[in-house]
Amino acid sequence: MRGKVVLFYPPYEGSPLGPPLCLLALASTLREAGFQTVIIDAAIEPNYKKRILHELPDALCLGISVLTGPMIRVSIEVAKAAKALKPNIPIIFGGWHPTLLPDETLAERYVDIVVRGPGERTICEVAEALAEKRSLQGIAGISWKTDVLRTHNSDRKVEHLEDLPLPAYDLVDFDAYERVTGIRKLPYATSVGCPYACNYCTDTVFYNRRFNALSAERVVHEMTSLATKYRIQEIALLDSNFPVDLKRAIAIAKGICDSGVKFTWTFQASTDFICRMSEDDIRLLAASGVSYMGFGTESTSPSVLKLMNKRHQRVDEMYETARRAAIGGIRVTFNLIFGYPGETHEDRILTMQTMTDIGRQFSNINFSPNIFTPYPGIPIWPELRSLNVPEPKSLREWGDMPLGVNILPWLQGEELSRFNRMLDYFLLNSQFRKYKGTKSLLQKIVLPPLRYSVLRRIRSSYYAYPWEIWFSRFIQKPVKRRSLITGQQLPTEAIKAC
User: Fold this and answer.
1) Are residues 362 and 228 in the same domain?
2) Would residue 389 count as lying in a domain?
3) Domain that holds residue 362
4) What is the separation, in whole angstroms, between the first and last Cα of the chain?
């Protein structure tokens, strides 16, 4: 072996999807290049800091994958501890946040190198340079520094996914993840990128609207082989928009059906692509094991969708997507964004009323409402600055930023209270739908008049004296946030303002 690379994935909110696919992809190319790789995932390693420090003495470097938010705080703690133990060890930050803010990330004294964008080939070249004690000059796709100078090398040319090896799933302890989640599940990506350019989305910045996909044949082979070899029950696709290539998507579903291998799988999409499928295509998806689809519908107000640059998003297609998914018995989550700059109270009323109607017609639909969060690097930031949205100025400040908590200057005071009251009723009505079909006394006597009253509130947008909300707290707390990848419930403390 040419040396050891330690890779760390910090803890995050919610149940893990499985092993960190980003690090498995790096481990695969590193292994091809002759390097030993140690992956430490906080999701299954409670003493992760102790384990990292144990692995560092003979390591070439420590790589940390970083997303915006609380993951940054742990990344900083680990990086500082690593430097305290071994001051000269190179610390590499990679992932979404460092890619979007490389100079700001590199400004921290405990960060030596930033890998920008997909890092499968980049990390190998960095490891080779470190092993041979060569300069990092000329390695595409990195930012790095000496004692006095920060250097941003040229961007790396995008590599076709088909030319990359299978992520190193053989390094995964699937039993450990099953003990944490209760299911044998793995994340997998058939593609990266999305052709759309929504103004609030980091994907358009990260992948520049390029759709880069594996062939249908390779996807079928890898998914069925992985499911068989590791006894996988569910595969969660991390694709930003899986069915962009409709012919390919249908070929994947057909290939899985023809293989006879049984597992469920989930994906994210936009409603326009689902509406281009036939009803038989939807039945094929269901037969292949698709159990869930997540959609970034965000709003039903035409003016807000225009502000978001979601001209491809149509309300009639939201209804049609719900109907088609119901044909296959596929669960669906519609993600909603409230508080987007330029959104009015009337826009929120329209969205909640329309989504309430969709939920009334289709029992397979769930909703995940969120207050607009200004992630780094998104196209709308110049406008946000002009609106006095507070912008973190350092890596630490981004780590302290409570994602999902309201920091919007235009959604405060009475306006915020009115929104929260509307949201309470919307979620309460959505929760009532889950009681359908039960035979309990609660269902027969209490819930019908309560639900009727809640529906009247939503339709009239009258929310004074919210006795239904007070009463409902004795029944069950509603689910507020769901993962778009799997539909699972997420921590709820982030939906309301502090």
Assistant:
1) yes
2) no
3) 183-372+408-472
4) 51
CATH for 254:
3.80.30.20
Angle between helices 447-460 and 345-361 (to 10 degrees): 140
In the chain, % of residues over pLDDT 90: 77
User: Is 45 within a domain?
Assistant: yes
Q: Which long-range contacts (CB under 8 A, 24 or more apart) does 150-156 make?
A: 150/103, 150/106, 150/107, 152/102, 152/103, 155/116, 155/117, 156/116, 156/117, 156/118, 156/121, 156/122
113 and 67, same structural domain? yes
**Dist CA 323 CA 88 (whole Å):** 59
| Amino acid at residue number 439 | K
Average of per-residue pLDDT across 111-125: 96
The number of residues in the chain equals 498
Q: How many structural domains does the chain have?
A: 2
Structure tokens belonging to residue 85: 């133990």
Question: pTM for the complete prediction?
Answer: 0.90
pLDDT tens digits, one per residue of 253-306: 999 999 999 999 999 999 999 999 999 999 999 999 999 999 999 999 999 999
Q: Which two tokens stand for residue 310?
A: 């979601």
